[in-house]
Known about the structure:
alpha/beta
Amino acid sequence: MASISQPRCIRRIKNFIKAGFEVEIYGFDRGLYNDNAYIEGHTINILDSLPSGKKYLQKFFLEKKSLSKLFSRNDPNILYYAFSFDIALICLLNKKEIIYEISDLVYTYFPSKLLICFFRYLDRVIIKKSFLTVMTSKGFSQYLFNEKVPPNIFIQQNKLSDYFNKVERSIIPFSHQQIIFSYIGSFRYPDTVFRFAKVIGKYYPQHSFHFYGDSILTSEVKKMARTYPNIKYFGSFKNPYDLKNIYEKVNIVVACYDTKSINERIAEPNKLFESLFFNKPIVVSKGTFLAKQVVENYKCGFEISATTDENIKSFIDSLETIDFQRIMQHISSISINEIVEDYTLLIKYIENKISEDLFIISNKG
């Protein structure tokens, strides 16, 4: 794991354990959300501490050094599950068999188009050479391969853990005269999400903006909370266990990710499925794959261009005419099967692929 506390990675590993796979867990400590770094009955082996931020080259060589030591200790026939591009690349360079999971295209943040094209090419090579590649958004496969998608790609949307099969969904009404907006997760996007919060702080004392989470930008969130009395910071939380308590206290989820990078335009984040489960309208950035899901597919929220104060103010002013009760009733009608992941499909796919490979090898023998 690129981060030992990433809820999606923890969830995926738990699914493999439930399915009866024998697993050994290794990862890097990023120093954030470590309350989530726990799997009952299993040890998460920390390979090293990695700096957070944009020191990609430094992180790559730290990962390469740690993984080389791991490879030298392990059986050469082990199937590795790589949760990031850099780990997958290191495994491939060391001729390791991998399942590669893509939840972000980090290289699309690079400022050089030439670099992005180069890493996109490398990514395509890694995918084609992988035993299997799991993608959390169909937008990734469309970006990388257009319509010529390799047969070893499996789309596993970033839905909620099956933990939520036992959690009750409820509709909590609210008034447009006093709305609690919220961002829940790793703090990013100063030009959109932070801008949205500051607009609430400056111009809408009747509303409030709540932050739940942590990141290297936490100090900026705390500063906003000190500056504006209607902006609140509630710290980090345990996923999935604290989500019900959090979502019951908010009215509208703000997920207006900055669309300057390709990644944000094609990703399908778990905020979509969290807001669906808890029957909360969601606000997302216009012109993204996520916006199509929100506005056209699930009809569960709004799309805006949150890069200017004027756009955000215009959107907030328009909420007086919105029938939120109707929207929430519609969201509540969306089946839980659309929201909570069915990991058994992925497990069955992997088991069948392993069986096919063993059959081919035995025939060659």
